[in-house]
Every structure is written in structure tokens, then in C-alpha cells.
Amino acid sequence: MVASSGSASAGRSAGRLAGRLNAPRPALVETGPGATPRVVNREHVTLVREEWRVVDRWWTDEPVDRHYFEVVLEGGRNVCVYRDAEAQCWFTQNA
Amino acid sequence: MVACLLIPGFELRAALRARPRLALVPAALAPDAGEEPLLGPVTAAAEAAGMKPGMRLGEALATCPSLVLVDRDPAAVEREWEGVLRRLEDAGFAVDPVEQGAVVFETRGVERLYGGVQPALERALAAVGTAWDPRIGAASRRFTALAAASVARPGQILLVAAKEEEAFLEPLPLSLLPMTPNRYAELEGLGLRSLGELAQLPSGAVAERLGVEGRRAQRLARGGRKTRVRGRKPASELVEALSFPEAIANELTLRRALSSLLERLLARPERAGRPFRKLALVARLVDGGSWRRVTTLRDATAEVGRLRSALGPKLQELPAPIVELRIEAVELAEHTGQQLALVEPAGEEAVVRLREGLRQVRASTGTGSVCAVVEVAPWSRVPEARALVVPRDD
Questions:
Q1: Burial B76-97 (b: 16+ CB within 10 A, else e)
Q2: In this predicted complex, what is the ipTM?
């Protein structure tokens, strides 16, 4: 008789399925006046190059309502972040 | 329904098959050399003495001086697990092994044969045998089935109806989720204890705080996705073994034994001219333990010289003198020959090399590891809807 060695194995259940490319990743964003990003992932924003909204799939159970910002960070990197109006949080994504 | 058959502490059970006496005394699987000194699975007697899997070795020996440490026996584990899988396959189940001691299969194909889900699962338990204390969980989703099997008693079949899945998962511990120890600590620090508590949190907040891993864990805590179970491709049975009258450690003798085994393996008619893609070298050590190394060949080959140079260096890793050497053909290539061209078209070599490289990756990491990007809606305004990463097994 052998006692259980724990059941962490249960977690290895996810099968190998088609995955999404360019899925959004959660980002830490601090906003300034006008709700524009001021700090993205602990790096200061030097320039907001562009902003736009994407409202789509409002007729489905998973509506999309995002406010995108293309920003330039202190280090010179170009980053796209958006605020999801449904989830009320920020994500980064290559738009 | 998706069913999960679980044999907790399989590694220890398999190692104790040759020493059944130890199953009745406080015993635990010893850590591997070079690994962190933590206990593996423990016997019931050891558990009664306060031992727990994952306990520090020093602490365990101080608490229970009579604790017997059982050496790992990877060859026996592999052999016994393959036996369990084959018995299930003989009973008609298309199995998808999760790890040694846990296997998932669908009952749909055999329900009519055995007269329902329950009789089919009883047949699966009987096929494995009571000596292994198997238990089965079944549900409409894979994760719920695995969770049900984790809480079932030995010999029990726990069926979870689709509408009860949420309520069933709710009180179960977070340890069922595949997360790093740091994440568990983080969740516990936040006061979360059960799957239900994690499932109830807002998805956005979980994603923001715990990232992709947290989102995946939460999806599982809510039951996970409905996925199809794909039966495995049974391993080949091409094995050649050589037993020695006395223990040997001499490299020259070992290399000669390997050459002889390779020649015997190559002469087997079951190979039907196909070259080897993956081979395992197994040895029985003089002290009763075993040793196993799996090698994926860069090019599938049936040339003795190349096989010898790929497997020969592995013999230097043997930790002790051996009394038996065995070679197993884990995977054979599908082709029997390669058509050569007098003048190869430009770029052809790169394509062939790429295809061969992908085949090697697939052979060493399993199906689904090689993916292709497929554009599904390049016009979409939602960036992640434009393309998918799809597993390629062709």
C-alpha cells in the first residue's frame, strides 16, 4: 500500500490545441491626465504617438471595447497598450 | 465521458514490485542523485509515522530513523506503466497518458460494448488490477475527471455529472492546479484556499495580478475547456537484452555488448527496413536499481556505426556496474528509404533539413509541439483574432 504523493498531476490536463497568436498580456499602467498612460511596466512614457478605439463583437457574449495607445517609452521602445473597458484593466499587444 | 485513471505513488509502487516486503514498513522513494534532497512518494506505514512526500530528507530521517529509502528504478517504472497502458488498450480504451500513474481516456467508444459508462469503467479497473489500487474519476471535462480521480478512494469510480461539475470542483484544494510553488504561496497569501474561491474572482483582476498562468488556472478552476482525448500511438515492441553472468563496468565490454545488441535489433524482421528515430538504453544495476537513457537521433538511421556513436557515449553515464543491458526501439521512422536526386533543385536541401529538424523535435517532445501560424481573419480589428497557432503533426 502506498499513500498518495499529491495530486498535482491533475493539473497537467490541458490538451494541445490551436492557440491565439499575439494574445494580449496584462500590463502595469499608471495613467496621467486624460487617462493616457504615464508609466508602462514601470517605464516612463515619453510620447503618446497615437490613440484609437476598437469596439467590436458587441452582438456576442464576448464584446470587445478597447482604447489603444501607441506610446514611446523612456528606453526608446515603441509599445502598444490598451485599456479593456469590459475587464477594466490594461494589456499590451502588438496591434 | 472523459475518464481519468490514477495510481498515486506509481514510481514507488513499481520500485516495490520486486521488494513487496518494504510496502509494509515505513519506506519512501529516495531523491535522485544531484536533485534536491526531498522525499518522493511514501508508503502508508511511513505516512502513519508522520512522513509526507516532498519532506526534507534530513527532517524525515530525524523523525523516523527506521525509514527505508527505496532507490529509483526508472526501467521498472517504464515497464510496469507500459504494462498498465497495454492492458487498458487490450480492453478497448484509447489511452492518452498524462504522466506515469495518470492516464486519460474516453468511454464513448466502448460504452455500448460494455453496457454503459459504469461497467466500462469497472472493466478498466479490472484490467489494471487491484494490486495497483487504481481509482477512476469521470466527467465531461478532462480537468474535472483528473480532479475526481485525485479525491477518489482506491478502487472507487467517481462519476461527476455535467451539471454538478461546478459544485464538485468548488471545495477542492488549489494544489490540483498546475502552478509554480510561488504562485500557490501568492494565492494563499491572498487568502484563497479552494478552486471555488479562485473561480469566483473577476477574470480581469486575476489576469492583471497573476498573468497568463493565473488565467489558465482560473479557467481550470471553472472546469477547463472541453477537449477531445486523443489515443496514443502504441510504442513499438522491439527490444533486445543481454544478461551478464557477473557485473561489468569495463567500457570496452560495454561497447561490445552495445554493438551486439544493435546488430540483433537491426536484424529483427518487425522493423521492416525502417530506420530508428528514438532509442532507449536500459541497464539493470548490480545493486538492484536500474538506469535508462532515451536518445532521439538527429537523422533517423539504421546504420550500425552511427547508432553506435550516438549511444556509445551514454554508457559512460552508468552510475554502477551492470548485470543486464537492454536496448529498446522507442520510435521508428515511417519511411524505409530516401530517394536521392542527381541534381537537387535550389532550396531543396534547406527544406529537407527543416522537415527533418521538425521531425526530430516532434519525436523528442511529442505530438503537438510543432506549430504553424495560420491566418484566419487578417482583416479583423481585434489583433489576436487575425491568426492562430495550430499544432502540425504531418
A1: bbbbbbbebbebbbebbbebbb
A2: 0.75
